[in-house]
Amino acid sequence: MIRSVPKIGLFDSGLGGLTVLSALNNALPGVPKVYYGDTLHLPYGDKSDTAIQGYSIKIVQFLKDQGCDLIVIACNSASASAGKVLEGRFPELTFVNVIDPVVDHLAQLEKDKVGLLGTRATVRSEAYSLKLAEKNPEVSLCALATPLLVPLIEDGFLGTGIDSDVLAHYLNDSALEGIQALVPGCTHYPLLKNVATALLNEVQWIDAPTIVAEQVAKHWNNNEVGEDTFYLSDRTDNFLSISHKIFKIDANWELVRLSE
Ligand code: DGL
Questions:
Q1: What is the sign of the dihedral through the CA atoms of 230, 102, 149 and 41?
Q2: What is the CATH number of the domain that holds 90?
């Protein structure tokens, strides 16, 4: 049997993982990547761990069947809720989640107080604070659930001013008082970077997708090239138009509904 070119698989509930894909395209240009957006089950952040694990297992099996050797869990909610389960279920694959590389970065940052915005699932898991406490207990991390941000991005409200109002409301939360750096702890949130940095005074914005992409590059030692492929569990005009507008992706998004 002819072995197909090794590929990197990425998945998210929707558009968010494309921020990781963009960073990965800079770090590893030409490497074939397979992206799966589980738009049918968006948002993941409000689902139970059991539900997120179930979706993630099916997606990883699909990505494996497409020839992916390395899987980037390009979603914080899935990294937090399903990361360990996936590693146990697919020992033959290499996984990079979006939390560990950022925690390693924060542990070296020499800041006392760091803020994190995330989905309910990510904040509930305490994944960032528990891992950071192990790596560097000197850094305190305050996490705030910001569930309005994903629907706002997926519904096309970026750049309307409403994004800025909602973000300002969250950033005024007393839990974030005194932070010196802010982590976009959801892969959708890097899309709010310009709005956020205009609101943040002297607070460092952490470039999470680049940090994750650098970690992926350390694990990848194939130099064969190929095309990227894109799949969705629900194909909507809204998704196609936003992925074109923001990420300039004109590819054919193939509809693949994984069995329930
Ligand atoms: N982009 C994802 C994350 O990083 C999921 C957002 C959602 O579907 O709630 O958490």
A1: positive
A2: 3.40.50.1860
Share above pLDDT 70 across residues of the chain, in percent, rounded to a whole number: 98
Q: Is 68 a catalytic residue?
A: no
| 127-135 vs 100-107: helix crossing angle, rounded to 10 | 40
Centre of ligand 1 to C-alpha 123, Å, is: 11
CB 135 within 8 A of CB 107: yes
Enclosing H/E stretch for 222: none
- Asked whether residue 260 is domain-assigned, the answer is no
Q: Which of 186, 192, 196, 211 is catalytic?
A: 186
Of 150, 155, 183, the residue with max ligand 1 atoms within 8 A of its CB, to mutate for a pocket test, comes to 150
Active site residue 142: no
> Which residue is catalytic, options 68, 71, 73, 75?
75
Q: Which atom of ligand 1 is nearest to the CA of 46?
A: 9
Mark 181-192 as b/e (b = at least 16 C-beta within 10 Å). Answer: bbbbbbbbbbbb
Please check whether residue 235 is in contact with residue 255, taking contact to mean a CB–CB distance below 8 angstroms.
yes
pLDDT digits (tens, 9 = 90+) for 192-246: 999 999 999 899 999 999 999 999 999 999 888 999 999 999 999 989 999 999 9
- Average pLDDT along the chain, 260 residues, taken 10 residues at a time: 79 97 96 97 97 98 97 98 98 98 97 97 98 97 98 94 98 97 98 96 96 97 92 94 93 89
Q: Which domain holds residue 215?
A: 7-97+211-255
pTM over 0.85? The answer is: yes
Which residue lies with its CA nearest to atom 8 of ligand 1?
43
